[in-house]
Structures are given as C-alpha cells and as structure tokens.
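User: Before I run my own analysis I want an independent prediction to cross-check against. Here's the chain; please return only the structure tokens and, at the end, one sentence I can use as a sanity check.
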Amino acid sequence: MTDEFYRIQRLPPYVFAEVNAMKAAARARGEDIVDLGMGNPDGAPPKHVIDKLCEVAQKPNAHRYSASRGIPGLRKAQAAYYQRRFGVKLDADKEVIVTLGSKEGLANLAQAITAPGDVVLAPNPSYPIHTFGFIIAGAAIRSIPAAPGEEFFERLTNAMRFTVPRPKVLVVGYPSNPTAYVADLPFYERLVAFAREHELIVISDLAYAEIYFRDTPTPSILQVEGAKEVAVEFTSMSKTYSMAGWRMGFAVGNERLIAALARVKSYLDYGAFTPIQAAAVAALNGPQDIIEANRKLYRKRRDVLVESFGRAGWNIPVPEASMFAWAPIPERFHNLGAMEFSKRLLTEGHVAVAPGVGFGEEGEGYVRIALVENEQRLRQAARSVKKMLAGS
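Assistant: Structure tokens:
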C-alpha cells in the first residue's frame, strides 16, 4: 500500500483518474469518444524544428549527458524571445534556466525554496501543480481567488495580515488553466508593488503566453519595473509550438530563485536530450508562423465550440485566451456536481471533459473543455450534448 508514505498521504486521489479509466474502458469497447478532457495539443511542430531534431540526433556526441541548466544557445534563444516579445532584458547565464516542461520546473522550484510548514498562496481553482508541487514539498496552501480583480487583492491583503506563519510564496497564472482568465499589465504592476512591500515571492505561470484572442498580447509580469526583485516566470513550448511531449520549458527572472532551482536540478537531472534542446533553439530563433497559426486554430475552435454547444442548449462563456473553456454545468444537471456530470457526459454523450473539482473545491459546478479536437469533432460532440440534454 502506498498510503503509508508521508508525501503520498498528503495527496488526495487523483480526481481525473476515474474519468480517464472510464474513457479507456469505453474505447476498449469500441466506443467513439470525443476527448476534450486533457489539454494535449493535436498538432505537430514546424518541419524545420523536427528536421533539426533529426539532424542533431545523427551526431555521435549528441547522445551524451546534456547540461542541467540547458545548453547556452537555448538559454540565449529564450532571452532573445523575452526581449522581442516583452521588451524584457535577461541575463542568459544568471536569469534563465531550461526545465523539463514548466510543470516539472515549478515542482522542482517548490522543492528548492519550501520548508515544511511554509504557507503558499495559490489560486483556486488552479492547475494542480500550482498547489500540489508545494504540498509535496511540505507546504500548507491558502487559497486566493483565481480571477485577477479587486477581490484578489482583498483576499491577498487579508492572507498576509492574518495568516500564521506569514505566507512566503504566491503563485499566479494568466492566461489561466482551467478558467481562461487573463490579466493586464496594471494588475501585474499592483501585484509587484504588493510583493515588494511584503517580501513575497511571486511565481508566474505563463504557459499560454501566445494563445490569446484579444487585440492586446498577453503581458509578462517581468515587464513591470522591479519585478525581478520578487518574481520568477515559467513558460513552455508545449502549446506555443505544439511540442507538449518534448517536455521543454523555461524559468526566467529573479537570479536568486533561478540559482536555487539550478542547484536542486543539478542533483535531479542531466537536462533534456541535447537534440531536443537544439530543436527548441530552432523553434525560438526560426520562423514564427506557427504561433499565429495556432492562435487562429484555437480561436476558430473556440468559436465553433461556443456556437455549436450554445445551439445544443449548453451556453458556454467565451474564453479570451488559452486552449480551454471553463463551462458551468447545465442547470438541469447542477445537482449532480462536476464529477458525476462528467461521468454521465462520457457514458451517455461519449464526450470526455475534465471535472472542475479536480482543479480545487472552487471548481465545483464547472467542467474544463479542451480545444484539442478539430471543428468536425467539436460539432459531433455538440450533437451528442443536444441528445443528452433532450433525453434528460
């Protein structure tokens, strides 16, 4: 039994596991399931990126251990991306580190900076690693609102004033997973000022930096003057370049936090496979057509989802960013709760979604719908939803 182990005892049953098991069983029976559950991009990276991977993999010395911090060329490429995209200047040697995806990077940073009993503030609902990375490291979590509004700062102020021990770290992530909330630069300016005043470390998750649907591009917290004093930011190539399985991410920002992450990583890994890192350099430094193409792809899918599900009788708020829709459960199913509704949608409608309660208790009453199937499949899912709603 695994529940005898200390850290395993701190982890609840994985909420998505039951739905995933039902999905696998349905497919094993030959049922056609439209899978909108996992945020797993269905596209491929650009050809020149794959070509670079193959080219470097042909070199005999490419198969040795790599560098835990990331090869210098990749760190420089990420610094160049921040300069042209956000106007932020980074020291590639001291303020940039390559991670094995942003998820693993955030978990390793939690290990580096957290002592048992530390208090960490995190959004609720939120991507699970934002809380469980710190829970595994021994921290206690206090929830703050996921939406970047006035209530966010009211709860943040109260948390700093009344929580014992005093919170040490704040995690934010915009565009948000699962809620698709977006934050503007004035929000980050206020947040940085607050963090500097209260000596609070801020971890920003910017995995969906390039998937925005408004005219104004997604900002980075590091655009704010003084942000590097308190903040580190994670980005990922998973969604931007359709490289999810490559496990390639970055942490940038505060030199002390980057150094702490680098030290822990040096004990845990030898870095990503060198050909993958070389291909990531090609992605960052080469043609950027895929970024706009992916943005248009997800925007079109979003529009199809909202329109077709709306006609089926399920009104879904229009997400302004990310590859997800955060959808209230249809009113007639509200008594079921997110988990049971997700199961029923799978068994009766053959559509898989992620129950909102898996992202925190504030996610109850919602499901997350991932835009990872083509338009035809989204319309197929809508027809199934319509039949299910009519049958109920």
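Sanity check: The two ends are 41 Å apart (CA to CA).
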